[in-house]
Each structure stands twice: as structure tokens, then as C-alpha cells.
């Protein structure tokens, strides 16, 4: 397939780098300042090298506004997540579907904040919308729910944010306080300079909102406002010590059950499936006929998230 | 879709019971003695009730030989696994593909022992062959490998047999010997009267052979003869005690790496991902770009395996 990639950050760059390996051609690529467009296929390595050494305005000599009108089969939407109206990501999705192109998202905004709007546009289009990469990176959560049937899932819960999980793992392992471990995480590149999105639970909540929308199968629409969210900033080191004395630890758990979406720190048994370590994510699917399925692995990262995007491209019907 | 179910044992009966819930119609169903056929849909509950109370010859009044010529979209092959020529399962697959019907297997024989033959028939047919249920029951292993790309998987390993795993778990937990725990497992219905297939590692090996065939993507064909297999019958209780003193336990692990297929007991750290308990199965996929994916859950059982079959039906192209 021919791919147009909107967003050339960590994930977008990885998709551009790996697309050829999976048999796809990148025919357009854009950040907010510049674009590269070539219906016969961009030299992605050269474009990314220019972006790296000279700045993102040097990605290519085309206008970002021209990407949506370019030749492609599937739009890969990997611009930074935005809340509320989910713009400009939502407009990118809209433009692609109106031209009967497919859309593959890693940007959580549209499917968390405007799920029904996206599905309505999809219904009027011959293009399909897929978004495995919006929930738990490389872990095949949404395709599993899709194949087994959303109606057969009674609950979904898990550890959805690697930054928060890394911090809690280190706090428990070293007996150190939150601020100290956060600084360590930032030094390692595991936490951002402004870590609020991760440590306040917003990132995990958006993923749970998307899951709730998928499980509801169109009967009801959820957005971030429907989630009850509590992060990890107020957990003292002593809480983790007390937990350990009782054979437990603390993890930031997101759960979707019926109409309820909740993200909060929870005590879990020390060696339970939910007590994953470091930046690992885990998703537990409770099913009607097959008990519990556990899916765990890397929930974030350039190549990791790119594999989820390319798995989605693999599932699109041929044009 | 209309389904023809060959085999009315535990799994076949569950597929018949659940098919309606998933929007499918059972138009034919057979065991070795009798069949029920109705192009408008069988009363599966009545047929299974007759089989249960009067014996399998009373499933219905049709001839099993007529099922393959009946009206259906997908043949569900759930007859008991056979090795070598994989008959009669292979002939059932052949008959369906020659009529351009789809095939969904839980019977491991054809894809383990005659993989290339099945793929050759499939290439000449407009029917597709799917076999998620042949490896690790409800756990979505094959669809994950398919979506992410078999070529991106560098190794697959796991606990593939719940009977053997249950026995090892109980031996470690209770300090009891193999024979004693085997008897307990048979009482619970977790082990068969003749448990050889499970405890000698053959069942796990067949699953690993299927995985090796999938990963090889047609470059090479494997069968049971290519696997190195060692079961759990010779593990003394003392081995598990010694392991525990070292923070380890013993699990029957199957692994596929490159051209090597091996099933054998292994020492694993006590709380590692591979040290699943009871009848739980786990599969670890090592990927090129996304690190390790862990998928665990119920690897066997009527409803559990039926959900994998129905997930495969869900993935078939509409007729």
C-alpha cells in the first residue's frame, strides 16, 4: 500500500523507516512545517536525515497542506494527541475518509474524544479506520477484541502507561520518593520534561476511553469527561513499603467495566499478572466464554508503536 | 455464515452451542456414526441432547458421508487429531477446499503433519484455511503472528499443554510425586485416562510444529518428526524441591527458533512469565521491532477453543 504519514515525531519516523520492510511505499510525509511528497515513493531515509540534522522545516520542499490531496491508500495519523475537538487530527481523518482512503491512527484524540463522529464519517466512506496503536503500543488488544467480538468482553483492565509504571517500580525497588524517581525517569528519557500527561493518568484514561467506545459497539459514546482519573503524584514511598510488608505493591490500573471507566493507583499482589515491571504494559480481557486473556509487552516506543500501525495496515482490505 | 461441523466432541459441541450467539447457522454436523443436515439450520440443542442421552448414533438421521456435500460456507474440522497422513481430517479439508469452501481447524493433524499439502490445496481454491484453535486454545497467537508478520518473529516459546502444567504445578505445591498428582488430575478431568499425548509432550510438540510451519512462510515444511520432544514423566518430586530452594520451578516448555523445534522440561525462575500455574497456557513471541509479547490464558476446553474457532470464522472473507 501507499502510505501518507501525518506527523514525523518518534512514531511517524519509525513508520517511515519500517514501511519498506513490510512492502509498503511512503508517498507523502509531513510535520507542521514541511512535507515530502512523491507518488513514486519518497526517499524516507534522506528526508528523515534532513529533518534530524537541519530541522523539521527541511523534511522536504512540499507544503504540509498538500499531503491530504496527495496519492495514497492509507493515511497514518501520528500527530500529537489533542483533547476536546481533537484537531487537527480529526480534520486529517475526515479529509482521508471523504476521499475514500483508509485511516490508521496512533493519535488517541479522535477515537477518544470524537468516536461517534469518526464512525459516522467511516460509514459514509469506502475507507476503513483502524487504531490498534492508540491502545498499549505493540500489544494486539483491539484486534483481539475485534476477532473475539466486543460483545463477549465483560471487562478490560490493565497497566496502560509505562512512565507511571516505571516510576512505581523504581519507588518500590529503591525505597525512594516520587520526585527523586521522576527525575531519574526524565534522565533516562522514560518521562517527559512535562510528565503530567503520564503521571496524572490522562494517557491511561484516554486508552480506557477508547476501549470503552469499542466495547460499547455504538450503543453509547464515551470521552475523557466520562473517566474517573487519579494519578500517582500523591503516593508516598511509605505506602509502597507498607504494601510490600503485606506481599503487595501499587500499580496505576485502568479498568473498563460496563459504563464505568476508572484510572487509579491500586494495591495488587506482588507477583500478580498486573504487577508488571518497568515500562511494560499489560491488558487483561475478561471474556464470556474463554475466561481471562492476558496480553503484555511494550506499550510505547517508536518501533514498537510502528509495528502496531503496520499490523493495522496489514489488516486493511486491498484497494 | 453457514457452518458444517465435523466432530461433535467437547469442542465441536461447544461450537454448535455458541454459533448462534455469533450470528452463524449450523447447517450440518457429524460424528463417525451419524449426522444432522438442514440447509435452513439444524436445531443444534436438540441434536446434542439426543447425542448426550441416547448416544452419538442418534445425533441425527443423516449419513456422515453426506456432510461434505451439504450446503455450507465454512467447514469446522474438529475430529480427533491423527498423525502421519492426518486422516480422515485431511480428506475433510481437501473436500471442502475442492468445493471452494473455507476451512477452520481445531484438529492439529493436517497443519502439523501435512502443512504443505494443505497450503497447496488452498492455493487452488477460493476457500481460506484458518487454524487459530490448533495452538493454545483461546489465546490469539496465530492471528497476532499473521498481523505483525511471521517474518518479524525471531522465536516463539511457551507453555502449551495445560495437563502437564497442572501436574508440575501441583507437584511443586504439594511436594507429591508424579503418579500421585497424575491420578488427582485424572479425577478432576484435567488428564485423560490415557494421558500419554499430554505428559509425553506430543500435544505441545504438535503446536510447536504448527508454529514452525507458520513462521517459515512456505520456505520449509516441518512435521512432528522434526521436533525434539521430552515429557514430564521422569521428573522426580525432589527435582522441584531443589528448584524451589534456588528460587526456580520446572515447566514443560516448547520453543521454536530458526529451524529448531524443542519441547522439554526446563528450570524457570519461580515468578517468571513462563511459570504459569495450573492449566493456564502462555506464549511468548520475540519480535524484531517490538521486543517480547506475552499472551496467556486458557489453552483448552470446549467453550475456550470454540471462541478461537469463531474468531477465525469472523476473520474469513464474506462469501
From TrEMBL, chains A, B:
Pathway: Amino-acid biosynthesis; L-methionine biosynthesis via de novo pathway; L-homoserine from L-aspartate: step 3/3; Amino-acid biosynthesis; L-threonine biosynthesis; L-threonine from L-aspartate: step 3/5. The active site is at 207 (proton donor). Pfam families: Homoserine_dh, NAD_binding_3. Residues 7-132 form the Aspartate/homoserine dehydrogenase NAD-binding domain. L-homoserine binds at residue 192. Residues 140-313 form the Homoserine dehydrogenase catalytic domain. NADP(+) binds at residues 7-12. Keywords: Amino-acid biosynthesis, Methionine biosynthesis, NADP, Oxidoreductase, Threonine biosynthesis. Its EC number is 1.1.1.3. One of its GO terms (biological process) is threonine biosynthetic process. GO terms for molecular function: homoserine dehydrogenase activity; NADP binding. NADPH binds at residue 108. InterPro entries: Asp/hSer_DH_NAD-bd, HDH_cat, HDH_CS, HDH_short, NAD(P)-bd_dom_sf. Belongs to the homoserine dehydrogenase family. This is Homoserine dehydrogenase. It comes from Halorhabdus tiamatea SARL4B. The lineage of its organism: Archaea, Methanobacteriati, Methanobacteriota, Stenosarchaea group, Halobacteria.
Amino acid at each position: 500500500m501507499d502510505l501518507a504519514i501525518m506527523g514525523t515525531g518518534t512514531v511517524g519516523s519509525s513508520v517511515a523507516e519500517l514501511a519498506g520492510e513490510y512492502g509498503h511505499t511512503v508517498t507523502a510525509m509531513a510535520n507542521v512545517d514541511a512535507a515530502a511528497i512523491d507518488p513514486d515513493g519518497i526517499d524516507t531515509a534522506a528526508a528523515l536525515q534532513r529533518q534530524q540534522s537541519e530541522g523539521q522545516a527541511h523534511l522536504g520542499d512540499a507544503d504540509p497542506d498538500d499531503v491530504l490531496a496527495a496519492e495514497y491508500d492509507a493515511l497514518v495519523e501520528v500527530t500529537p494527541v489533542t483533547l476536546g475537538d481533537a484537531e487537527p487530527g480529526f480534520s486529517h481523518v475526515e479529509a482521508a475518509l471523504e476521499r475514500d482512503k483508509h485511516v490508521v491512527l496512533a493519535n488517541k484524540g479522535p477515537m477518544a474524544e470524537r468516536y461517534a463522529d469518526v464512525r459516522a464519517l467511516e460509514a459514509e466512506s469506502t475507507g476503513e479506520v483502524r487504531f490498534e496503536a492508540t491502545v498499549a503500543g505493540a500489544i494486539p488488544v483491539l484486534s483481539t477484541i475485534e476477532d473475539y467480538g466486543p460483545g463477549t468482553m465483560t471487562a478490560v483492565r490493565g497497566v496502560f502507561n509505562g512512565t507511571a509504571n516505571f516510576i512505581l517500580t523504581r519507588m518500590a525497588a529503591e525505597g525512594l520518593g516520587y520526585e527523586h524517581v521522576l527525575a531519574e525517569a526524565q534522565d533516562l528519557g522514560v518521562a517527559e520534561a512535562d510528565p503530567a500527561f503520564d503521571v496524572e493518568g490522562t494517557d491511561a484514561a484516554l486508552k480506557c476511553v477508547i476501549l470503552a467506545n469499542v466495547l460499547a459497539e455504538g450503543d453509547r459514546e464515551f470521552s475523557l469527561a466520562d473517566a474517573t482519573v487519579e494519578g500517582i503524584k500523591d503516593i508516598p514511598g511509605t505506602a509502597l513499603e507498607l504494601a510490600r510488608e503485606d506481599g503487595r505493591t501499587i500499580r496505576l490500573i485502568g479498568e473498563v467495566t460496563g459504563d464505568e471507566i476508572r484510572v487509579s493507583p491500586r494495591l495488587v499482589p506482588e507477583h500478580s499478572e498486573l504487577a508488571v515491571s518497568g515500562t511494560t504494559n499489560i491488558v487483561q480481557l475478561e471474556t464470556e466464554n474463554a475466561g481471562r486473556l492476558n496480553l503484555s509487552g511494550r506499550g510505547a516506543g517508536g518501533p514498537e508503536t510502528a509495528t502496531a500501525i503496520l499490523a493495522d495496515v496489514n489488516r486493511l482490505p486491498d484497494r
